[in-house]
Amino acid sequence: MGVSVFAQSESGPGINAGAGIIMAKQKGSTTMMGTTTNSNTSGPGFYVNFGFNNDLGLGGLGYTMDLFFDHWALSDDAGTSDAVARENYIGFTTAINISLDASETLSLQPFFGPGFSWGLSSKTDWTNPISGNKETMDNYDEDTHYLRQYAYLTVGADVLLKSLHLRLRGAVDFGMWDRYSSVKEITAKDGPNLRLGVAYLF
Fold first, then answer.
1. Which of 67, 92, 65 is nearest to 151 (CA)?
2. Does the domain at residues 13-23+39-95+103-201 carry the CATH identifier 2.60.120?
3. Are 161 and 106 in contact (CB under 8 A)?
4. Cα 145–chain centre separation
């Protein structure tokens, strides 16, 4: 296996479009009257992306920029609540990668870089314990203080099947800040979120 100096520059800059699955997680806590209760949620989702890739001409180093639409549904890991939070985001990542050629048609590209997402919607369906009725709460209501935006670090690797013009991706996103930064009694931090997907390289 060698480092490919010309892995992308032979064909110049390229664009890609793809889709995949997400296993999303969020770790949180609530403090009331001096007692802190931890709550972890997780759930499946999917993403679609449109991206740009280019070689820097520096010993196989390159970069990618991807625009994502993400959707996932989070539920309580402990099963103590029937609440399900459905969230939609639009996000952007930029990452540095290095091309490692196994052959003329197969290449591995480890990568890492920052990402930023903006929440389009976040709503929780739950059962009111008093009335027994199903209700929906908008998590972006001013009273919740739940931030729409969050930043993360993404780390992963792409496998390029050059003869098929395909990119297989595995990545993990690590949230970088508390989504309830203005409320001391509640915390929520995203990730690690697992992404598995495929993209077509034009």
1. 92
2. no
3. yes
4. 22
Distance CA 106, CA 109 (A): 10
Strand segments, DSSP code E, in the chain are 2-3, 14-32, 35-58, 61-76, 84-98, 100-101, 106-127, 134-138, 149-161, 166-175, 186-190, 193-201
CB burial of residue 61 (10 Å; 0-12, 13-18, 19+)? middle
Condensed to tens digits (0 to 9), the pLDDT of residues 13-72 reads 789 999 999 999 999 888 877 788 888 899 999 999 999 988 888 888 999 999 999 999
The burial of 37, by beta-carbon neighbours within 10 Å (0-12 exposed, 13-18 middle, 19 or more buried), is given as exposed
Distances (CA, A) of 142 to 87, 135, 154, 166: 17, 18, 29, 43
